[in-house]
Amino acid sequence: MPICDKDILVVDDDPKIRNLLRNCLEADGAIVSEASSASDVDRLLSQGTYDLVTLDINLGPDDGFEVARNIRKTSQVPIIMLTGKDDVIDRVVGLELGADDYIVKPFHIREFLARVKSVLRRTEHAEIGCSICHHTPCTCQQAGSALFRFDGLTACLLYTSPSPRD
């Protein structure tokens, strides 16, 4: 599955890593923007939407965990943490803050691309709007409900028990 025309924001303070990721993603058809700081991320996210963000935890003076926390306040864009921090607690914190995946540097570029495609595949399904509440993702889902897709429409159906007869 190529990632043609997917808008991806690459966030890393290291220009060599940003260039490597840009080249890899663009070779597969992605449209790539780059950020090297938290302020760059804020500016770029305020100017448009992205299909995925790759986010380094160490952004020079900035904290990638805080950047992820801020992104999650306003967006459900998929986030892949891409960092040299391989401690289990860092992985857990990243995932609990809302990251969809966590890749430790150094990494193999083919694994990186496979993980990007996997996250995009999973989130693409979740971003189909509901034909009932018209939100993306569906906000009418609740316990006892299920999301169904048919002929281009998505609906959240609520299971109810039969009403007692008088």
CATH fold group of the largest domain = Rossmann fold
Supply the CATH architecture of the largest domain. 3-Layer(aba) Sandwich
Q: Total number of β-strand segments?
A: 9
- What overall geometry do the principal axes of the alpha carbons give? globular
Summarize it.
It is globular and about 30 Å long.
Task: Write a structural description.
The chain has 166 residues and is an alpha/beta fold. It has two domains: 7-126, Rossmann fold; 129-166, no CATH class. Helices cover 37% and strands 23% of the residues. The protein is built from five helices and nine strands, in the order E-H-E-H-E-E-E-H-E-H-E-H-E-E. It has helices spanning 15-27, 38-47, 64-74, 88-96, 109-126, and strands at residues 7-11, 31-35, 52-55, 58-59, 62-63, 79-83, 101-104, 145-150, 153-158. A five-stranded parallel beta sheet has the order 2-1-3-6-7, sandwiched between helices. The protein has a two-stranded antiparallel ribbon with strand order 4-5. A two-stranded antiparallel sheet has the order 8-9. The longest helix is centred in the last third of the chain and has 18 residues, at 109-126. It is globular. The N and C termini lie far apart (56 Å).
